[in-house]
Amino acid sequence: MTSEIPAYGLRAYALFFTRHGTKEPFQQDELEWFVRPSMKKKIFSVLLRAGWIKKISRNAYACISPEDNVKQLLEFKVPGIIRLAKKDYAFTGLSAIEIWSDYSYVQRSTEKSPYFIKVNKKDLKYWKNFFNANNIPNYVKSGATIGEYVILIPVQKVKASTKEQFKVDSLKETLKEAQKNEMFNYAYNYMRKKYQ
């Protein structure tokens, strides 16, 4: 799973890829002429953790193809990593409609993929750190960016049902939300027919 890297990491990756492509191995000492030892370690740590290069032996590395890296930047990560969370949450609003309607309504694309998630107000710092550690842009109450991102909605106490291994607003609350907008008629009718 590839994640974004800072500009210095991208420049180092470009240097390695230009010199070696994806097949020829390289070593950390290639950067000794350009950066301090501590920065060299930082660059390799960033590139490895972000998935732009891989370790192929004790001292050798290889580039992952740029095509794969760029495609993976827009992959949906939230459904996989949210299951690792240690705090309460509930998909809400349009995200709850998606889940309860068995994705008969889908709000996401590679260009724009928001997730709306209720979290306990007291846990807001945990959630920001959780998504930041997984390189997922996140905002409190509102915000937007290209690709996948999370809108955190702080509440006093999260109440959640479980659907498909996800914590999500109750069906009743989700039906109420879907009924508010004509755009969700299909999803609303689907949920009513399936669950009531």
Description:
The chain is an alpha/beta fold. It has eight helices and eight strands, in the order ααββααβαβαββββαα. The protein has helices spanning 7-20, 37-49, 66-73, 78-81, 93-100, 124-133, 171-179, 185-195, and strands spanning 53-55, 61-63, 89-91, 112-120, 138-140, 147-155, 161-163, 166-168. It has a four-stranded mixed β-sheet. Strands 1-2 form a two-stranded antiparallel sheet. The chain has a two-stranded antiparallel sheet with strand order 7-8. Helix 5 (93-100) packs across helix 7 (171-179) and helix 7 (171-179) packs antiparallel against helix 8 (185-195). It is elongated, with a radius of gyration of 21 Å. The two termini are 39 Å apart. The relative contact order is 0.13. The model has no long low-confidence stretch (mean pLDDT 91).
